[in-house]
Amino acid sequence: MAEHKHGSMDIKEHEKTFEGFIRFSIWVGGISIGILIFMALANA
Length: 44
Description:
Elements: H1 12-42
Transmembrane segments: 21-42
Keywords: Membrane, Transmembrane, Transmembrane helix
InterPro entries: Cyt-C_aa3_sf (IPR036596), Cyt_c_oxidase_su4_bac-aa3 (IPR012422)
C-alpha cells in the first residue's frame, strides 16, 4: 500500500460539487419562502 501524504489529494471536483449543492439549496430555500409568502397573501 502506498504511503499517504496529508493534503496531496486534488479536491477541485469536490469543491465544485459542494458549491453547486449550496447554490441549489439557496435557490430551493428562496423559492420555498416565496411560495409561502404568496400563499399567505392569497389567503388574506
